[in-house]
Design brief:
Length: 425
């Protein structure tokens, strides 16, 4: 049995305290990478990391389940141009609840954190304590206590000169940066309101297999449980919330109110999360940020952003045409930029991470990545409770979603939230 407090602290001792970025600054040394979380996103991130630097190797992998690790390794080995960069020996493949600790202790310089988000705060804390640079997939936590833990960890990373790059990939797309810079330079005037849309269809689901206990079934289907994913407004639609926050220069809202529910995805197989949310964040000077998201089969799918100003409108419809309509019009195609300048946001974030390590001028995305994560959590609080939630309420919330004991075995599914009855905590 692993007590939660012991699990949180495991891997926090015995680490290298010198920032490895200082050791490798501008040098030819091989940077060793460890992958923690071997699902599809982790495998993709590992590919990007191995292509980001001429002298990098994947030397360790960790996942709770061996079949996921082996599937990931096979996929990576099938990337022909990367074969020489994969140096994962049998004794450097780790499974189980403490796999993250073993990867961190294996002698790597950089870790990729792509496990379910509920584990992110403890794993990021362990990596930074051991002096590792980090690529940290979004979101950074599923509850406010986790966000506060990540805030403190990112402060320590800054003190140690360690890189922390967030998986909010749109912030690393050069075309999106150009559009946002134009907005921040006043090309649409003063922002009046923002509207982001993340309307998706069905997600994958893994049928429960004989021998799976409750804990295993939940981790294997992690998007459907708030302690693991935070609900899809925090796990998936957080990309759109982050873009709205970016447009508003990461200012904190005064309050949020929202609605949501569970209409089409109601079976027990889908845990207890909602299948739709709508949130209005209110900022100073009356600026409002509206966000809608759903995961419903048979519905129109769209991921678009609209920023309305006093002198024009900026929009990105289906993440393709980036344009401004108004006094200073602008338009570019994401596909064209990809063809001409290889503007691949997934690759860009790793390219910039490794360049920052080599130069010794490391990137630390801690401040804004935690704000965006809390925005998503704040939205969930508003939709689950049906109440107005202030930024202070969200930041100081005591709602701790992690189970008291992280171990295989029985783990009841929480009830589905009921707005007007579910209490804020």
């Amino acid at each position: 049995m692993t007590d939660r407090r012991d699990f949180l602290q495991s891997g926090l001792t015995g680490g290298v305290l010198l920032a490895s970025g200082l050791v490798h600054a501008a040098g030819p040394d091989t940077l060793k990478v460890g992958l923690i979380g071997c699902g599809g996103r982790g495998t993709g991130a590992a590919v990007n990391a191995l292509r980001a630097d001429g002298n990098v190797q994947l030397t360790a992998m960790g996942d709770m389940y061996g079949d996921r690790l082996e599937s990931s390794l096979r996929s990576l080995q099938n990337e022909g141009d990367l074969a020489k960069k994969i140096a994962v020996k049998p004794d450097q493949k780790f499974t189980g609840l403490d796999a993250y600790k073993k990867v961190i202790e294996s002698g790597v310089d950089v870790v990729i954190l792509t496990t379910p988000p509920g584990f992110r705060p403890m794993q990021l804390e362990a990596a930074v304590a051991a002096g590792k640079h980090v690529f940290c997939e979004k979101p950074m936590a599923t509850d406010a206590p986790g966000v506060r833990r990540v805030i403190e960890t990112c402060k320590k990373a800054k003190e140690k000169g360690l890189a922390v790059v967030a998986g909010f990939c749109y912030r690393y797309q050069r075309l999106k940066r150009e559009l946002m810079q134009r907005i921040h330079d006043g090309e649409i005037g003063k922002i009046v309101n923002v509207h982001t849309v993340y309307h998706a269809g069905a997600l994958w689901h893994r049928p429960r297999t004989e021998g799976w206990d409750d804990f295993t079934a939940q981790v294997r289907n992690w998007p459907y449980y708030t302690w693991l994913s935070g609900d899809h407004i925090v796990e998936q639609a957080i990309h759109s919330i982050d873009k709205g926050a970016w447009a508003l220069k990461d200012e904190t809202p005064i309050k949020a109110i929202g609605l949501g529910g569970r209409q089409s995805r109601t079976g027990a197989d889908f845990g207890h999360i909602f299948d739709h949310h709508y949130v209005c964040y209110e900022y100073k000077d009356g600026v409002k940020f509206f966000h809608s998201t759903r995961q419903q089969v048979g519905t129109k799918q769209e991921v678009s952003d609209f920023i309305y100003g006093t002198e024009g409108t900026a929009s990105v419809v289906s993440q393709e045409i980036h344009k401004i309509v108004g006094k200073r019009p602008f338009q570019k195609s994401a596909r064209a930029e990809m063809r001409t300048s290889k503007d691949d946001m997934y690759q860009n974030e790793h390219d910039e991470l490794f360049r920052s390590i080599r130069s010794g001028k490391v990137i630390n995305d801690g401040e804004w990545m935690t704000k965006s994560t809390l925005l998503g959590i704040m939205g969930r609080m508003a939709t689950y409770t049906g109440q107005e939630i202030t930024w202070e309420m969200a930041m100081n919330s005591k709602e701790d979603l992690l189970p008291n004991s992280l171990k295989e075995g029985p783990l009841p599914t929480p009830p589905v939230a009921k707005p007007g009855f579910t209490k804020f905590s």
